[in-house]
Amino acid sequence: MDSLQDTPARVEALSDLSRFRAGLHACFTRRGDALFELADAMLCAQGPVRSPVEMSLEPEFRRRHGSVYDALAKGRITGSRLRRLLVGLSAPARAAEPLMFAIDTTAHPRPDAQYADERTMVQVRGKGGDRWLPGWPYSLVVGIQWGSSSWVDPIEARRLRPGEEHTDVTIDQITGLLEDLTATGKQQPADPPPLVLLDAGNYATDLTHALAGHDVQLLVRLRTTRVFYLAPRLGNRANGRATAPRHGVLLLRPRQTTQSRLRTHRGLRAVRHRERPRLERMHQKLGSIGRWATWPRDKQLPIVRGTVLQVVVDHLPDGRKPPKDLWLWHAGPVPADPDLLWKAYLRRFDQEHFHRFAKSYLGLASAHLSSAAATDRWVSLAMGAYAQLRLARHLVDDLRRPWHPRPDPGKPLSPYKVRLGFRRLRARIGTPTDSPQPTHPGPGRPKGSKNRPKSKRPPYRRSEPTTSKHTE
């Protein structure tokens, strides 16, 4: 029996969760009942999700284990409908502030799956250094919120297929996000443009140029090896030149800027930051490589301008060595607000917590299947499952273990603790699926049929692998 009282706010939250579950079930257009019960088994399993077939042992999955693989292999999930459903679930922005979203990639390494299709090379981080292994990379979009918790709003998970450019996929995800924000009413014409946060693996100039006509702000972390130029001065037209120079003063490294000024900000455990004056109208000198390789030879490459900001940590309260300076690139239809942008970028690390929780407990990377499309459906189930946990964070009891500390009053439960109590909540709200129908075993394989061995499928590589053997 649930110990929480049925207040009006709780009844409304229960209704929101029930409506979302019905909408999620409607996104599964083939093998929908089996897929939905598989997602429920993810949420109710007492422990981490190790493999899809183990979910057939959970009472929430009322079918046999063969239905797990059948649903993943032959099921169908309408990705655009699921994304719009999740966008409509995202939390509203604070007054006069933009909606915040983060995009980052996560790897699903499959180095030994020689028969798995559509593998590419993914970067895997470990104690021995970063390695590149065959696998499936996924680009995840989440909504970022203010507050003391690390909850995010899952939006979309898209796999990068062989031959696809990461920048092209990111642009497509951002444009699709903007369309869904308008369609769901989350973004109104008078609202500030949404703010999209990205890590240093993205090309800030390429994204800025491609999204120049869209109502969106970009905030990208920069590597210190990037080279930027100031806008040329009007007086540089002299010296006998026929045309004015296109590039101004060269900054070999972003840290070579003007003198900083000291400012103390609240809310970061007394960590003092030095915020340098923002450098506006900065740009890079482009070359005919990458996305610009197909640029017409008779036209000059464009000048893509943005604002470069620097965040410097003076000291930490516990005496640890301060981290390196944080360099950010901002571009958008509105001027940069440094006080908002550096705080917003720190919230991007909530997505790292989401990746870790989804992999550790929801089995985001636990589906060791040979089909990339089936793995995509499994990842979509994990995104939908996490969204249900977010809706249920105020609806479950705190079933903490005896050795767990008590949470602070008024602070929402963590995703781990919400998952511990979701089974009780599900028993109350029910399920939109139908009961499984009795079936009979099929005739089996025809007599005399032979196995057809699969052919190995090497991973897609942009260039031929180099040998590491030592030669005299």
TrEMBL record:
Region called Disordered, residue ranges: 427-472
Protein name: Transposase
Positions with biased composition (Basic residues): 447-460
Organism: Actinacidiphila oryziradicis
Domain Transposase IS701-like DDE: from-to ranges: 24-254
One Pfam family, short name: DDE_5
Biased composition (Basic and acidic residues): 461-472
InterPro entries (alphabetical): IS701-like_DDE_dom (IPR038721), RNaseH-like_sf (IPR012337)
Transmembrane segments: none
